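re: ur question from earlier - yeah i can do the single chain one, its not a big deal. heres the input i used so u can compare w yours
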Amino acid sequence: MSWWTVARRELGSAFSSPLAYVLMALYFLLSGYFFFAIVVSSQTTDLSAMLQNVAVVLLFLAPLFTMRLLAEERRLGTDELILTSPISPAQWVIGKFAGALAEWTVFVGVTLVYPLALSRLGTVDWGPVLSGYLGLWLLGAALLAAGVFASSLTDNQVVAAMVGFALALLFWASSWVSGSASGWAQNLLNYLSAPAQFSPLTAGLLNTSNLVYFVSITAGFLFLAVRVIDTRRWA
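and the output i got, formated as tokens:
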């Protein structure tokens, strides 16, 4: 068994569960509302404000994507079989994450219908649109990785969702408290702010530092999740 096998099974399991369709309905309902309320009503082809509002929705949805991934396996005891199988903790964690990320990719991909619809009505600047969607996808990957780590800590899905949301909120709100710090601490808090890293991408500014931020956060949380699983395996 490889991470790819785990990812395929996870994706199939996700779309056989009512939760996936509930999350999909919520996501499309809210993103559709933002599209019509912000873009259509103002007769603009600028999707940056819509994407930033969708990012706030993701803050709440991401923990629901990931809360069951590892916590449910632990609750049912099926993780014992996996921990004693030839598959490594890294392959297992990456497979679980890849399945959730594939589900999120479907969500993001379907909403590309919004700029496509706009392109039939007027001129769309595809640079900011594509970089904004890339930023939304990367933000989702980072928040999903945080959720995977949270799910590795417990066998309770509700607790995993709450911890995942707390971690996501920590990165979302870090710049809010940066004013009370100074020097390197203030710079660090501003750098860790997810909205500060996401906003330039919605404006079409594809900076390497923004991409490195999201990739680093994603890899860091996956590494921590692997360490948690690895510790339990050796224990």
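The CA atoms of residues 85 and 144 lie 25 Å apart. not sure if urs matches, ping me
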